[in-house]
Amino acid sequence: MQRRFxxxxxxxxxxxxxxxxxxxxxxxxxxxxxxxxxxxxxxxxSGDLAVDRSLSEIGGKGLFTKEIEDALHxxxxxxxxxxxxxxxxxxxxxxxxxxLLERADPRDAFLSSKATSIATLPQGAVxxxxxxxxxxxxxxxxxxxxxxxxxxxxDTRLKKLADGVADATLLAMAGLTRMDLLDRVTAPLAAExxxxxVAQGAIGIERRASDxxxxxxxxxxxxxxxxxxxxxxxxxxxxxxxxxxTPIAALAEISGKKLSLRAMILTPxxxxxxxxxxxxxxxxxxxxGVDAGAELKSRAGPHFFTID
Length: 308
Hints:
By secondary structure, this protein is α/β, with parallel strands linked by helices. The protein folds into 3 domains: 1-101 and 202-222, D-Maltodextrin-Binding Protein, domain 2 (3-Layer(aba) Sandwich), CATH 3.40.190; 108-189, Periplasmic binding protein-like II (D-Maltodextrin-Binding Protein, domain 2), CATH 3.40.190.10; 223-308, Porphobilinogen deaminase, C-terminal domain (Double Stranded RNA Binding Domain, 2-Layer Sandwich), CATH 3.30.160. It is 34% helix and 23% strand. The chain is built from 11 helices and 13 strands. The strands form 3 sheets. Strands 2-1-3-10-4 form a 5-stranded mixed beta sheet, sandwiched between helices. Strands 7-6-8-5-9 form a 5-stranded mixed beta sheet, sandwiched between helices. A 3-stranded antiparallel beta sheet has the order 11-12-13. A hairpin with a 6-residue loop joins strand 12 (258-266) and strand 13 (273-281). Helix 10 (224-240) packs parallel to helix 11 (285-300). The longest helix has 18 residues, at 13-30.
């Protein structure tokens, strides 16, 4: 009898869309309808429960993954679907991510009814975001703006914007695309204006290292180019020991056999910005990320990574 793969996911609308994308791919690989090939299991995470404070206050990225990874480790699920930008750089023993779907648009989106861009926001405008990376880059460009916390799922943040809690917000183009909400976007933000989060737009599938059947299945739809781009960015993040507590941004792009990597660290108030870039072979993705991360770390000094 064909094994039915249990797919663990968070319960937000976006997370469920992404889990169903994976279920469709599993079904296609097995020659079965998605409903026969896979079962989606919703798991509440600590990050979903604590919506009144920023992630940097309550523990960082692992809050969106711990309970799902516990279920994977214990055999309650077979696969876990993650937005890779939410993933800590170190995975629990016995778990691996060696399958990534083709990356969607990694850029951030600017949303506002008051302005067409960050530059045209009124003096002293209020920008809603709980991302230290987004807040620091906005402050670097517009020191006059006020940042207010904007936690919650995409729909919650869109409602806060509509209710006038802020004059503008920034969201991931990838999530808005998957939720068919591109009509809400005022303007996409080029990486030269706001550099994305590490692995933004990429979906990763985690499995038990010992599960060879799952490994064989996932290998049929792993997107190699996305894997290399994410590997470079996450290698940089690992060197910096990055979490939601430090504003870090990076984007790797591939053309032919060449990979280019841009990376940035900022102080939370945006007053100091350190940038670097690397170009090399895509096959050297991890080494390029490590090298860029080491440079940023050496140039920054300890105050960049000190938690008040």
